[in-house]
Amino acid sequence: MNIDEQNVPQAYRDWLKNAAEKSNYFYSYARRKKPALPKRTYTLEGLYSLTRDTDYRGKPQQPRYLAFTHKDAFWRELSGANVDKLPPIEALRTAFPFGCCDGGTLFFHPENHSIWLVYGEMYTELVADSFEEFMEKAVFDKKWDFD
Fold it and tell me: How far, in Å, are 20, 27, 31, 80, 103 from residue 34 at the CA level?
């Protein structure tokens, strides 16, 4: 995968180019609409995690960055408080997944690059208006290396 060919904000490109390839990064971030609630931990995946095409047992899997292209990725109608701010499912298939939080997949909105979560039951949540906002307010917790 060439990150320069992906539909992601430049700030994320810069972050990924500086991140260790075989590492994942954990950040604490306050919930957007409820900052009084405890912060959640968000995992931003390095290039290895994003592009890995086998699981830990060596079995084939779809790389994370292509997760939304699978025909069953969006298996029912999306829900959530801000779901009206998301484009149609066909446009979301081009969104770039880049991490996770609480079992959900973190991705960039394909049109404005805001950061969203989508959970397995298709509930969506706006996390931040931009990658810059996320990084400005997030607190780095730790780095986990695959080696």
Answer: 32, 17, 5, 15, 19
Q: pLDDT tens-digit profile of 8-20?
A: 999 999 999 999 9
Q: Is 129 a residue whose pLDDT tops 80?
A: yes
Report the C-alpha gap between 117 and 14 in whole angstroms.
Answer: 22
Q: Which residues pair with 106 in a beta bridge?
A: 99, 117
> Is 40 exposed, middle or buried, given 0-12, 13-18 or 19+ CB atoms closer than 10 A?
middle
Instruction: Give the helix ranges, DSSP H, for the chain.
Output: 10-18, 47-51, 89-92, 131-137
Least trusted range by pLDDT, from 76-90, 96-110, 112-126: 76-90
Pairing mode of beta strands 115-118, 124-128: antiparallel
